[in-house]
Amino acid sequence: MQKTIRKVSTREMDNGAAVELQAASYEGSAPFSGIFSIFDCDLSVYQNPETGKLMVSAHCHVGNSNDEDDTIELEILGTLTANFIEGYSGDIIDRIEWVK
Fold first, then answer.
1. Considering only CA atoms, which of 17, 42, 36 is closest in space to residue 93?
2. What is the pTM of this model?
């Protein structure tokens, strides 16, 4: 059974790069959705050379981590489930955690 991810907190972003994911997975988790901050719309998405999975590097804290530059790798599930947005202003997911 896949573990579930819970969105713990959000923060406001002003005019930054973001990705809106309709179906994503973190380290094999059950699918979830949300908007995440990314470094760059062109450079943050890649195909994992070992697995062939489509991935995106996003800025987000996991659990109790407070590192200033937390970057997580999210798997994009399915086609047409990611919308990359330049100049995004609004709420983004800032912290996720595993549901116990």
1. 36
2. 0.93
